[in-house]
Amino acid sequence: MALLIRRLAVGPYETNCYLVACVRTMEAALVDAGAEAQRLIDAAAGFQVRYILLTHGHPDHIGALTSARAALRAPLAYHPLERPMVGAPADLDLSDGMELSLGDHTLRVLHLPGHTPGGAGFLLGRDLFSGDTLFPGGPGHTKSPEDLVELVRTIKEKLFVLPSGTVVYPGHGVETTVGQEREASKEFVARVEAGWSGSGDLTWEAE
């Protein structure tokens, strides 16, 4: 039941797009389609792409969507609250707890509001694709104190309850683990829960 994960950092913000595939069946999913469509298409060569999954609808995560979708002929799936940003209708509306099959593997959808209303993460065993919800070093960008509170609650209730060894594949930057980020974020989470209303953009300028 081997799982193949290919990370492609694309575009000016080095947005991470992932090809995730079941090695035995060669069924795959493309997580985000930020830029450089041909690189994404080439990475998927030889695989049967079952889904194009969007973590959220910010431009640096969907810039190559039209071209990649046309070439891969795969159903587009994202949370309905992202529709105003994505524009293109989804073939499949994602919801919290939904499960999708990927060859021998089961992918579970996590609704992760805060960075955007319909942000989504994808969990396959102990591999988590977090989009811009959680980075190495902290949470993603938020536009208001209210969004920051929601994002921290999301991270704490949806992500930090996962096993410490869960590998986090973020929307920008390198891999980390739930255990590392749970420990690193203790002080920040406590400050937000105590009423601090600063920006949630700790590490990344890009949305």
Identify the notable features of this structure and list them briefly:
207 residues, alpha/beta, Metallo-beta-lactamase, Chain A, six-stranded mixed β-sheet, disordered C terminus
Would you summarize the structure shown here?
With 207 residues, this protein is an alpha/beta fold. The chain has helices at residues 37-43, 59-62, 65-72, 83-86, 145-159, 178-184, 186-193; strands spanning 3-10, 15-22, 27-31, 48-53, 76-78, 92-93, 99-102, 105-111, 120-124, 127-131, 134-135, 138-139, 167-170, 176-177.
Descriptive account of the structure:
This protein has 207 residues and is α/β, with parallel strands linked by helices. It has a single domain (3-193), classed as 4-Layer Sandwich (Metallo-beta-lactamase, Chain A), CATH 3.60.15. It contains 7 helices and 14 strands. The chain has helices spanning 37-43, 59-62, 65-72, 83-86, 145-159, 178-184, 186-193; strands at 3-10, 15-22, 27-31, 48-53, 76-78, 92-93, 99-102, 105-111, 120-124, 127-131, 134-135, 138-139, 167-170, 176-177. The strands form 3 sheets. Strands 1-2-3-4-5-6 form a 6-stranded mixed sheet, covered by helices on one side. A 6-stranded mixed sheet has the order 7-8-9-10-13-14. A hairpin with a 4-residue loop joins strand 2 (15-22) and strand 3 (27-31). Helix 1 packs parallel to helix 3 (65-72). The longest helix is centred in the C-terminal third of the chain and has 15 residues, at 145-159. It is globular. The protein starts with a strand and ends in a 14-residue tail after the last helix. The model is unreliable at 200-207 (pLDDT under 50).
